[in-house]
Structure formats: structure tokens, C-alpha cells
Amino acid sequence: MIASSLPPGDSPRLVLVPATPAERLECTKLNSVAWKGPLDLESYIAREDHLLAQQLTGDGQTCWILVDGTQPAGARTILGACESYKKKALLAYAGQVEDIATHGVGSVYCRPEFRGKGYANRMIQELSVKLETWQLEEERRTRSVFSVLFSDIGKKFYAQHGWKPFPSSHIALPSLGGSDEEDGAAAGLPSARDLSAEDVKESMCSDAVFRKARESLRAASERTPHQAKIAIAPDYDHFVWHWAREEFYAEKLFPHSGPPLVKGAGEDRARVYCAWTRVFGETPEENTLYILRWIYDEPASPAQAQMTAQAMAAVLRRAQRQAHKWDMRHVEFWNPTPLMLQAVALLDPDAKVVHREKSSIASLKWDGAKQGLGNEVEWVWNEKYAWC
Ligand SMILES: CC(C)(COP(=O)(O)OP(=O)(O)OC[C@H]1O[C@@H](n2cnc3c(N)ncnc32)[C@H](O)[C@@H]1OP(=O)(O)O)[C@@H](O)C(=O)NCCC(=O)NCCS
């Protein structure tokens, strides 16, 4: 289709449909320009296929394309594309916790020569309608309660379509060479240990941990019964999905280093644990070790708070050292709690919380009001693991 014959963004001929496998491949090739980073095209396609094969979304990943509905499948011009990922989620309302399904949205893309014609606007408008019922036929709730995305184009565009910005802050610490023994600052901290994938599973994803998390959600919901609370289920599959990505990059970029086996750190006495992933950017400057999720008990006394903050600081120190080993410049984690800030202050009193305005804006579309779940919603565990 030549540019002059393109339909306008509000044309009734435009439809949003799931892509065929060949069209999905075409989308990957098109958006590679924006997202392949340090990979070559072939490796980028292989990365996308590798992620598609992960357990996290199973058959629940859909590549959507905006096309002229009068063109036949197989010969349609892709005017815009995006993906949705069905995920497990939790809903707490009026003191009850429910397992529900949700969708994450990502890979929103329009090729440069078709931009500025309203295709992204139309695509997201259509998607918002599709996701109200998409893949929910077999769920107890057959209509969407909420969906999420992480905007890299600021806070305005997606908000117009219902995905409102939620807390999107982070704190970053530099990577650090050396060892705990040489480090005077770390000397006063308890000793944390590295976590393997199996350790993360055991300490952060056990039935007991999930029961406790669910109970804390229920108790919070009882305290504010008319404010719905939602969370993306922080299950092991999420971590594995992020690790599949980091391992893919590590193999391509550091073929002689072996896979990154240290997947987090923990301090057993205070029961503070975190899982992380390494994100390789276009340049090493952008390489960042992201903490995907924290687990810790809410302290019941100032003395316990002190102990927990120290354990967190020790865990963060391990993250800084691990980042250094993998040529990462920073350790970053999202939406720090006051306790985490206390921990950071033990390591770097000058570290500041950054409130993002443009990239990775956690955005949530709340459909619960139509289902009698009120107008207000809190996003619980709004951490990096939920990113897609
Ligand atoms: C973002 C993108 C999909 C927009 O496509 P498009 O077809 O040009 O968008 P539209 O013509 O429908 O314009 C949609 C709106 O988004 C705004 N917009 C477009 N690109 C933007 C950007 N980089 N930052 C902020 N707003 C942007 C437009 O100004 C327009 O606003 P309006 O509705 O108030 O007029 C396209 O620029 C793209 O593919 N960029 C590279 C990949 C990317 O960044 N994707 C988004 C990931 S969250």
C-alpha cells in the first residue's frame, strides 16, 4: 500500500485483528529498528520467539495488527501493531481476595513512514474494547477487571484511552567492584547470601509465601473495603520470563562467561529476599540490574525496622557487586517503600528517588467500576516483575 492511498486513522475500514504467524514475524522485523538494542536482526527475532515460548503467558500472548479490513489475510498492510499478554492477577475487594485474569499490553509500534496519521490512537482505542472480553471466556469473570501497560511515551497518550499513570518512581545505586570484606561501609551490615533460581523459588515463591501475601492483601482490603486492590500475581513464571531474556542476551554478548546464575540475594535472619534480572541496553551505559521484587515482613517495632533495613542494605550491596560483575552500571528498583529508603540511606545518603515522567510509566486501566467494584483502585506490588 503506498502512503498516498493509506486510509485515515478514523476510517471505518480499519480493524484490529490477531496477526497470523507470518504477520507476527513481519511485525518483529518492523519494530526491530526500535527495540533490537545490541542484537542483530536474526538474534532479535530469536529472542522474541524464545520469550513467546515461555510459560508466563502460555497461549495467552497475542500479536495484534491494525489493518484495512478489506485486504485479504496474508496480503494486508500492517498499519500498527501491539501485543497483549494474559496473566494471572489478584483482586481484593471488601475483605475478599479473588484470583482473576488480566492483560499486559506492550510492543506498541507504528512504522516511521506511517506515523502521525492517527493509527496508534485508533489501535489503542480498538484494543481497549477487545481486551474487555479477550481470552476471558473460561474465567469466572468474563469481563476485564483491569489491564496494565508501561508507557515509554509519557503520561498523556495512553491516559486518553483509559490507562492512567500510577506510581512510577525508582531509586538507582551504582554498581560496585570489590568484596564485602574490603568494604568498610558494608562491615556493619549483616551478611546476605546470593540466591540461585531454585533459592528464589523456595524463598519467594513457596505456597507459604503466597498464602502470607494473600493474607496481607485481604487484611488491607478489610481496612479499606471500598477501595479495590489489584496485583499482578508475582509468581515464579514471571521471574523465569525475565531470566529467559537476560540469559538470551548473556549468551549472545558474553558467550564465554556462562549463564548468569545469581538471580537475587537474601538475608535469612530478617527474612529479606529479592530477585533481580540484568537488562542489557543499547550501550553498556544503559545496562541495569533491576530488582524485580522484594519480599520482607512488615516490621512490628522500631528495632525490627532497623534490622530489616540493614538486611535490605546488605542485599542491595550484593546486587551492586553482581551488577559490576556483569558490566551493569546501575542497580535499580521501582517504587521504594520508606523502609527501602532507610536501607538505601545506609549505603548512599545522597541517593534520590526519581519520579519518571516519560519512560516505563506504570499505567492501569480500571474496568472494575462497571462491575460494582467502585471507582478507586490501588495497584499493590507495583514492582518491576510486572513489566512486560
Ligand atoms: C508511539 C507511536 C506508536 C505513535 O504512532 P503514531 O501512529 O504516530 O501515533 P498517532 O498518529 O496515532 O498519534 C497518537 C498520539 O500520540 C502522540 N505521540 C506520538 N509519538 C509520541 C511520542 N514519542 N511521545 C509522546 N507522544 C507521542 C501523538 O502526538 C498523538 O497525540 P494526540 O492524540 O494528542 O494528537 C510511534 O511513534 C512509534 O511506533 N514509536 C516507536 C515505538 C514506541 O515508542 N512505542 C511506544 C511504546 S510505549
Task: Describe this protein's structure.
By secondary structure, this protein is α+β, with helices and mostly antiparallel strands. It folds into two domains: 3-86 and 103-164, Gcn5-related N-acetyltransferase (GNAT) (Aminopeptidase), CATH 3.40.630.30; 169-206 and 246-355, Aminopeptidase (3-Layer(aba) Sandwich), CATH 3.40.630. 31% of the residues lie in helices and 26% in strands. The chain is built from nine helices and 16 strands. It has helices at residues 21-35, 41-52, 119-130, 184-187, 197-204, 207-223, 236-253, 302-325, 338-347; strands at 14-18, 61-68, 80-93, 96-109, 146-151, 163-165, 169-174, 193-195, 228-232, 264-267, 272-279, 288-295, 330-334, 353-355, 361-366, 377-379. The strands form two sheets. Strands 1, 2, 3, 4, 5, 6, 9, 15 and 16 form a nine-stranded mixed β-sheet that branches. Helix 1 crosses helix 2 (41-52) and helix 2 (41-52) packs antiparallel against helix 7 (236-253). The model has no long low-confidence stretch (mean pLDDT 95). The protein binds coenzyme A.
